[in-house]
Structures
1.
Amino acid sequence: MLDAARRGGYALPAINVSTVTAINGALAGLAEARSDGILQVLPAAGAFAGGLDGEATAEGAIVLAEAAHRLAQRYDVLVALHTDHCLPEEVDAFLLPLIEETARRRAEGRGNLFNSHMFDGSQLPLEENMERAAELLRMCTNEEIILEVEAGVIGGQDESGASGDEIAGAYTTPEDMLYVDASLGGIGRYLLAPSFGNQHGSYKAGELKLRPEVLRDGQLAMRAKNGGKAQFDFVFHGGSSSPVKKIQEAIGHGVVKMNLDSDTLYAFTRPIAQHLFQNFENALRLDGEMGIKNAYDPAVYLRKGALGFAERVRQACADLKAAGLTLSQPEPERIAL
């Protein structure tokens, strides 16, 4: 999927999910767009899915992954599974158990639980970040897992609390990118999430100072060092609120994956809020009345949320130029003769 995105000049939508309802919305959106994609689980999402005490982060991630494996079989698109923003202090409780679970499945002759994981060591000095990442990449490579890393802190706020500082104007340098490749390139396959003015969260028009040319400069440095065909596989974090023109410019400089979280969360919540506002008296038992079941039935309003989620995913597939390009059933003109 990543190779196809690189060759085809598009990026895969990587959609954060924390519930089965969100998984269904994501899968429906991908199928409607005829796009392959990635479902992502944050440690916070694993904690939410794992129980009300919020302590079973790895177990919750396994529950979501198993659900995604089963539900994705209903759709004729390819779906990969990824974990997002695992901080250094979360590795032992979250990332390592998930790698071990994939190793156990593979020993039984089954496929991977997750296809890729992210280690977010961006708050560490780059040397320590890459030292930790190299250890994890060796473990991942043994199980045919891709590792995503972040070099340069991407500001804003995401669900996990990662990269919570406001760091406008922090850009990853070509030298830092080359250090990442020197540290990881000989071990296994990795994805790099650089900082080029992107920030987690949603912002008003004009607030983000995106500079996709930072990605271009990194690719030029990579080719100058390693040859004309060498290139990074970049990940666009904090893509919410970004102008489509900037998104597609970043794709032109090697972005093969873009994360979706804030925009899909809002697209999920907006129709639910509308339903509850419009059915306020029926959704609550007011003045001794009993309300109306369809007004307070979660299956009714959560379905509306899933439909909104699916529509936002479908839009993202078009913005990322991935719509209609699923590899599940190549169209005749795409079949090599």
Note: The chain has one domain: 2-328.
2.
Amino acid sequence: MAYGNVILLLGEAALYFCVMAGLFRLRRQFGLGVFVCALGSLHFLETYLAAIFYMQAPFGTALSPGSIVLFSGKLVMLLLLYIREDAEAVRQPIYGLLFGNFLIVALIWVMRHHDIVSPAPEQIPDFPFLDQMGGLMIFGTLLLFVDSILLILLYERSASWLGRNVTARIALSAAVVLSFDQVGFFLALYYFADVPVAVLYGGWIGKMVAAAVFAGMTGAYLRWFEAEGGKLEIRPRLADVFDALTYRERYQELLEQTGRDGLTGLYDRGRLERQGPMRVADMIAAGRSISLILVDIDGFKATNDRHGHSTGDQVLKLVGQKLTETMRSSDNIYRYGGDEFVILADGMNHDTALAVAERLRRAIESHSAAEKLPVTISAGVATCPYDGENLSSLFASADTRLYDAKFAGRNRVVGRRGAQSGDTTAQSTRSVPGIA
């Protein structure tokens, strides 16, 4: 029977999530008020069940659907609200619950002064029970306020550990906060309802399972139903801690997008000028090599003149796509300007950089031939510390070799050795503005 109780709890969790996620999904048609009201309407039931309704689970633990399903689910729903909307939306149900619970306690106190009559035998108000529930609901909502702040902060912080794995981030954040909440709410239950200590560890085990289950369902929901993007608004002032949290993660994503070329999606020249010198200096300090590959599209001006700028844009996108596919995820690729691209490859020696650049040249040549639009590139390769110990000197060496490739007939890669070694004493007249 204990395992049957677990199956029922999982069914209750699935039912809760499907209904609440469905209401959240319909927020564009009906507004967030429907979702928020449904969330708040379950608060009394959640507290009541957490106080007196327990069932037997495996390994001798006692579980309550009030804590395992309703409270854990509510916490994850609030995180979903934050992820897809903002912290201003999150604080509305929390503040509403808090003020509503205080109002309940105040009204109960006033109602004590009524002259009460019984409409039926043994039907009289149970004021001690109402006092107990009022106290638990106030304490629980205050704890929910703290839980929500911690949950959002942990979710944001976990991005540096888990990247874009939203499901893992939700699971980790929920597990930590629910552990904290279990201790806090048990103290209230012990004070108001005199529950045994077994409820503490039994409820904790159940909440850890709930964190994993709700995180899995929320991750799937976000992937399948909310992939088109969320609401983003700019607000003029900061009012409280939830405002301070609002858009922080979205700001980081927006910051990541700045410094990118609008056509190709690659980093732009300004980002090269800001980041490049430090990357080269770091590699020099660590005693590691870093290669710079300077790529130029052959005859790009003639392509524009002959086929139009729309075709020219397609060529730039093609080259940008092949650069991204060929290079490692750790390599930084910049559109330097016009038809030129710069690649900074940390830890890549000269021979490897030559081989990679040649593979890139062949990939672009083969693809363009299949598309019946001849596109080729020329490239110059330079590697520190042999070709320079700062970004400017590396760029100058690569630029010289790029010109050698152009003069040798284009559609080739020139490096320091081999048939296309570029062993020339000519000095480039170009430099990277701001970093020379």
Note: Confidence is low (pLDDT under 50) at residues 228-239, 418-436.
